[in-house]
Amino acid sequence: MRHDSPTHLTMPKLLGALGLTILVSLTLAKDFLGSLPPQATDLSLSVGSIIENATQEGNSSGCQGYNLQTLQEDEAGLTAKLSLVGESCQAFGEDIVNLTVRVTYETATRLHVNIFDTSDEQYTIPQSVVQRPQQIKDAYRQSSDLVFNYESSPFSFWITRKAHPDATPLFDTRLKSMPPTPIPAVDSSDTYKNTTSLNNLSFVFEKQYLQLTSALPKDTNIYGLGEAVASSGFRRNLTSTVQAMWARDVADPVDENAYGSHPIYLEHRFDSATQTSQSHGVFLLSAAGGDILLRTPPSGNISVIQYRMIGGVLDFYFFSGPSPKAVIEQYGELIGMPTWQPIWGFGFHLCRWGYQNIAETREQVTSMRAANIPLEVMWNDIDLYHAVRDFTSDPVSFPGEEMRQFIRDLASSNQHYIPIVDAAIPKQVNASDLYDPYTKGVAKDVFIKNPDGTEYVGQVWPGYTVFPDWFQNNTQDWWTEALRNWSQAGIEFSGIWLDMNEASSFCDGSCGTDADISNTSVPFILPGEPGNFVTDYPECYNSTVSGPSGNITVNGTLTCHLDTAVSVSLNKRGLGAGKQEGVDLNTPQYAIHNGFGRLSNHALATNATHVDGQVELDTHNLWGLMEEKATHLALKSIQPGKRPFLISRSTFPSSGRWTGHWLGDNFSLWAYLRHSISGVLQFQIFQIPFVGADTCGFVGNTDEELCNRWMQLSAFTPFYRNHNIKGAIPQEPYRWDSVADASRKAIAVRYALLPYWYTLFALSSTSGTPPVRALFFEFPDEPELFDVDSQFLVGSDILVTPVLYPNSTTVQGYFPGHGNVTWRDWYTHEAAKPTSGQKLELQAPLSHINVDVRDGSAILLHAEPAYTIEETRQGPYSLLVSLDFAGKAQGNAYIDDGISNPPGPSRTLTFTASQNQLVINGNGSFSIQQRLQDIFILGVTQVASNFKLNGQAHNATYDATVQKLSFSNVNVDLNGDLTMTWA
Length: 983
What we know:
Blueprint: E1 7-8, H1 13-18, E2 23-25, H2 48-55, E3 66-74, E4 77-84, E5 98-105, E6 110-117, E7 146-152, E8 155-161, E9 171-172, E10 191-192, E11 196-197, E12 203-205, E13 210-217, E14 221-226, E15 240-245, E16 262-271, E17 276-284, E18 290-295, E19 302-309, E20 314-319, H3 324-335, E21 348-350, H4 358-370, E22 377-380, H5 400-412, E23 416-422, E24 425-426, H6 436-444, E25 458-460, E26 463-466, H7 475-488, E27 496-499, H8 616-619, H9 623-638, E28 646-648, E29 660-662, H10 670-685, E30 691-692, E31 694-695, H11 704-714, E32 720-722, H12 737-752, H13 754-767, E33 772-773, H14 775-778, E34 792-794, E35 798-801, E36 810-813, E37 823-825, E38 840-843, E39 850-854, E40 857-862, H15 869-874, E41 877-882, E42 889-895, E43 907-914, E44 917-923, E45 931-938, E46 948-949, E47 952-953, E48 957-959, E49 964-967, E50 972-973, E51 978-981
Parallel strand pairs: 21-22, 21-32, 22-23, 23-27, 27-28, 28-29, 29-30, 31-32, 41-45
Antiparallel strand pairs: 1-7, 2-3, 3-4, 4-5, 5-6, 6-20, 7-8, 8-9, 10-11, 12-13, 13-19, 14-16, 15-18, 16-17, 17-20, 18-19, 24-26, 25-26, 33-34, 34-35, 35-39, 36-38, 37-39, 40-41, 42-43, 43-44, 44-51, 45-49, 45-50, 46-47, 46-51, 48-49
Helix pairs in contact: 6-7, 7-9, 11-12
């Protein structure tokens, strides 16, 4: 039986009515490939000719894919059995002969397609690591937005929208959908044993190499696939992206793999004929190392995405959207919603590697207050440690009892303290060296081992180290005890900073069991020490210009030659492996594009072994996530009833359930100021919304103007921390008058907006809605916004347009809405008057960042921003309402105590304005102690009078120049309802 035509998965009516399943046996014609028509040049390209392109290069019998043998359908989806066609492909090892395809319509908007080896030997991520919905209570097959379609021989599939079955598929693995010319190779090693082009095959499934290719519209928009500092910005490049999936300890490289692995993308398609758009998402749940390629052939009218994984299975989830926000929410529904943040986490944080003792640390707190720059959280880097060991403080530089008093002094001022925790645990140097976390870890058998069962040894800051095995049953209790003992010894932390958790090691793989553990030095010179002084000038330094930074003359003629952060070559190749028998754990044939080359370089050896026989190659990308979960649970035990606060470097899908993230070791360069926006937007897709960059840059020396602009920008990102490297010039914001001024102004806006931020994150934790948004998230039908990452939105209502280049006193920005939305300046309340679809030039003197408020919004604010979050929250509220063209506005605010875990009583306020009336309603049992002091209504187009508050006359003022109605000193209790009217 020959099946040339697409098959839509609709169950026969009779069998469906009886609730039965159908089993289909398919006999495949041997001459199927040879009988196919010539290759076409559009989206219906034939299968055969691309296969011929491959076979002409010498591999005529293998690499023909899989045929469908049996098919069993049910109300939830289907299960199909596949078998290999012809001889093995042996592209990079042994082909798996028998595969199973399980298709499940999990919700109306989520479709699950899992292709796995029938023998179930390939690595799959345990539920204990990434928890997914398991029981599908309802049959969504009939109501699903998405449809799974397939061809039987060779097996391929494509995903369509039920509402538009004939439109270009959302995902399409048919070879006839591939380009008429081969996909451009990445480098000279991009071949099957130098005989067959790797790019000409859609579907390969081997023990150590899995490949799947899907066609994409050539003009589509792809976002995600990280973690990445992409030269193209937030929107990924369709012609040359090679995203390696391998967590890596490296100072933010451009166009290479970094700290986390996130194989999800959001695709946004625009129909120029209808001027409308739709988004969908594709997620590969895999911890395997791999490459994900976006390529566009030099001819042809489509692009492709190609997955090349070195293990695991092809476990795909498809999200129907159709809006960008809906895609992100649907992803959160699968992997888990972001953790609730304590409200103090939204304050300003200060740290550096290089605070040498408690006196220097305390000095920063004092200096920040003297400059009246709000400081919420003080941090210490590894300088805190004794002998650079986790869970210690140096008895001379940071004595325990002094640290306890220092931290309690912070607490008495409503401030907080966070220390660092590194991934590695040092081995004891000798018998007299008693280090409790190590000895107890050995006793509980919690460390990763070599394949022969001996202790695996790496090397990090304290010297030779071991690493926790998070799969071990005893590890959680051991980790919790270590953190609790540290807190009881004086380091009474409010939260924890997790670093080096890719996990990183300075050896290339194992250091060996015979390593000289008495040598506690690292194999390189630390920054700031002789031989490695941080002597580079700030990027725009000019010694002929006066001033501490050398380039602060913004209106002068200084020429600044910016670092363009050009991508390095992609010719470094790593090593991959699989877990199962019959594979090479150390030298597999396909090498992913790991920036360090060997996968074990600056990491653990790929054959390092966990308690249940899992190997590091399969679990490497999970290490950070598992540490985050363990630490989150430990803090819940140590600080019962409080929300754990974590910031972590290495992340994986579902990390947001446990932690926030900082964007790693960036550079004190203007390029990285710009990159920080893309990074924050990227992690909104990844459902790790509490994210921010090292403000003013980490590596190298910053300067006054760069730090000025960066302190402004970061005040509008969720996580707000200034942090820099040991040996560099100090960059605390009080160091320069202009930076101090910019910081005070920006933080005042941030703290005024705190109720708005907090409401956005409550929505994120309950619904997965991204708090920070690319402009097209809110305005998906405006193509000029699709590649904009120089501006962003906080929620739907706050537009931020930062200065991103030096020597600038103006900035250009879009005001979305094509003239149907009015944007009003945050500071002056004046309405912007842009040309539809065009940028508008804005004044941006030093220390000023442009912020605008969207019409139709109603935003609860803190009326009197104070030095700390707690002091700010104790003050009164104000309400800013910006009416749209119809005289309407709407908003809400979520309020609770800000710290309880799980969240306790709350109150949600709803603000509704229309027809010269503002109504405030509340719902919930939380008692709000602070009162509403002022109400400002923008967009009141006629002179107003006859003001009433709950039916009683009340004074108000009207400013016709900005159409602003002001009700001052209303002094309203927000635990009741309110109605305000004007005529």
